[in-house]
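Annex B. Sample input.
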Amino acid sequence: MKAAICILLFVLVGYIQARITYDDVLKAEFELFKVEHKKSYDSKYEEQLRLQIFKDNKKLIDRHNKRYVAGEKTYKMGVNKFTDLTQEEFKISLLSSLNSNHSLEGIDYIYNPSAKDSVPKSIDWRTSGAVNPIKDQGQHCGSCWAFSAVGSLESQYFINKGRKVSLSEQNLVDCSRGFPYNNNGCSNGSTNGAFNYIWNNGIDTESSYPYEARDDDCRYNRNYIGAKISGTVHVESGNEDALASAVANKGPISVAVDVIYKFRHYSGGVFNEPSCSQHLNHGVVIIGYGTDSVGGDYWLVRNSWGKNWGEKGYIRMARNRNNQCGIANIPIFPLV
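Annex B, continued. Sample output.
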């Protein structure tokens, strides 16, 4: 009798498993996704639309990860808070169009590596306490340029003045719009435009001028300035050796990269994508570099999409791969 029951249970389990499809699995994952990322939608139609977009993105992620497991890719993908967005929605919501020429206007100095400068095999400025915790620009504000500028400045202040400061991206979003800085708040901007604003005005602290992830009226108050700069330095465009020297000897550097559709799904490893272009649309900060046994040389990059994205808010991007994703096109750091 017991044997018969066991056989029956085995048959039933097999029948149930056979009835569960890949589509069923994706629907279940979507329900978990909504809970984890606190997602809710305005209508049943909207929910069905987001479900379909989630499925499409998840299928892409699963196909990629099969190649990763097979050793054909050096990085893996995963579900994150962007998985229910189309690529076009993602671009409109979070990315900026960064013009390289405009981004270099008014540069004060060019960084020239010295033969005396040591360039170690690897460096990570987090280990010395020079990098603040990961921040989040939000899902509806293309303020990456402000986070890139602030991220570099916060680190430069710690390295050169021994002071830990958290500075206000919202100050830049609200107050550096239009002439002469030519930024456009949540729509787009340039890191150098941000630094030019700071050179003229200073920048308020994060606590006095908290982030809102939207355009607002300028409320800058010189009584709450957290940092000032005396100029900006540009590293030779396209020169990854010079960029490595600058990162090692000067500290974290503001850069811009091309974010292709696979970038937003990144969850770990070395992001090596030859399909990347030189069209820069996202500001980030290089805080180090190294070499991975699987993925090879990489840049250690601080992003502004929260600590639950990528490798706890960071991405390792391919280094010494012909300036992949344009990462060495407009490296800038402030003088403090």
